[in-house]
Amino acid sequence: MSKHVKENEKGKTIEVEFPGNEEEKSKGPSPEKDAVKKEKKASGRKEKKDWEKEYKELYDKYVRLHAEFENFKRRITKDKQEAIKFANQELIRQILPFVDNLERSLQHADESKNIDALKEGIEMTLKDFLKTLEKLGLETIPAEGEPFDPNVHEAIMQEERSDVEPNTVVQELQKGYKLHGRVIRPATVTVSTKKNS
Hints:
Elements lengths: L1 E6 L5 E6 L2 H7 L3 H55 L3 H23 L3 H21 L2 E4 L11 E9 L7 E6 L1 E4 L2 E4 L1 E8 L3
Parallel strand pairs: 4-8
Antiparallel strand pairs: 1-2, 3-6, 5-8, 6-7
Helix pairs in contact: 3-4
């Protein structure tokens, strides 16, 4: 039994006994309780080992994935730079024959005084060159005789005319072109205005 000392209001000391506590203390820990404690410790250690193993596996996966992603980014950047660098390769390859033809024309011009033959050769080269550009998606913007359209025409002059409707393209100064439907250069034109009477 354990004793508990308590002082009352008048200053007298009272001893109170509680049964059972000392018996339990004298007995010490029971084998069942020891076994439960050991089992809990062992399972805690096992759980910790399992958790550590899972953490290491996940961390290794993360490191590998991160490295793969960095390699992927580098590869994509390199491929993009290569694509930009050689984007015009096919176009240039198709233009080279015209460069060859023009060089041959210049050689013949030095050897021959026949201007008509030289002119004919240059016209043929230009015609073939434009056909090749059309295959690549280039189209000429219609201009002369067309109503003025600020989306495809650039007016740099106006001319008073009574024979055509006002705001009509009366002269094309430089051809305009579209590539796959998108204007890459507007046609430079002269536009008609109403003649003052």
